[in-house]
Structure prediction request, 406 residues.
Amino acid sequence: MPKTKGPSVAIVGAGAAGLSAALEALRAGADVTIFEQRPEPARKLRLLGRGQGVVGRDDASHESFHGRHARFVQDALRAFDLDWFKKLKIKLTTDEDGDLRAPSGQVLVDALLKALKKADLRLSTPVSAIRKAKSGFKLTLTDGEFECARLVLATGGNHAPQVADGAQGLRLAQGLGHSVEDCSPALVGVRVAQYWPGRLPGLWMNVDATLVIDGREAGNCRGLVLFTRNSLTGPGLFGFSREIDTALMARKQVEVVLNFYPGMTHEQVAKWQYETFGQYARQDLASAMDHMLPMRLSLEMIRLLGLRADSRVRVFGLREREAILHQITNTRLTVAATLGSRAALGSRGGVNVREVDPRTFESKLVPGLFIAGEMLDVDGSSLAVNRQFAFGSGVLAGRNVIQNPK
Prediction:
């Protein structure tokens, strides 16, 4: 493996933040070694988000993030530059949701690894401990120790542990003196107490969703929701899903309210129903509602109201019609649990950002240590903005890792 002649830099973690930090450090002349405990690098980039290569959004800002100090992300988001991907010969496109994407996760990873051919990438090499030394850091490996002048921790969040072990990076950060906020799943689907959604597997619906905790509105989100045999998931819930696990742990009542007519006022939906029922007054209720909602969903709405699906629309009076209108714009579901960290696309919690410089991502506690990406206690409202922060923070860490050593 060819080597550069600069200072030695170790990167722990081969995900978005780790690989972008490694590439920037390599370009700055560092001698870069990347440690990844899995047998292949960047599995989250390859697999999460259906492997579609999401990297960010043009409109991302600190307002897209949660955590005690969401403004911490601003410098990293500014570091996100389309030209950075152009240098990798990756053409980004914008999808219908406004997310920036590479052709695929695999194409993205292959381009990064090609650009990092001068780095020493060590797969299946877990780092079990790190200690500060006079000359930098000593990493404890399975077969001995490795010394480096500068160190970047970028193992990711603790979600999707079957893909990457972010929890190990948090333990290493704690071992070096950093505090870690409790972690819980974010960008995650939910299991509901009601049985009927399980009869709609594979149904995608665009909705306005409201989170209600102990009777009080706690969040809103708009987007697609997927019904499965035992859960609901999708972007239409992700905007507030980080709050659910914490509320359930506190034994609070958690509900999700779905409006199947997103962006429409109550009056607009009422007018649409009135016109539809007027036009199809001689048809049975199920057939008429099929013009308003998918048939499978219509039948469930009718069952929930205790109405006869085979009765003609004209036999239903104002009371029944108002009940239907309320049901299709205000479907309430009781949340029993989230789908957990294995199904999550992000995580809440991590290394306390007060202990890290947001301009360089160098630790304020340990000179020469940099912490980047989803290990930090900020989390975005979508996979796209989380990826953008991971790449941007990795870029800043890599650019600063050999500059102005303390």
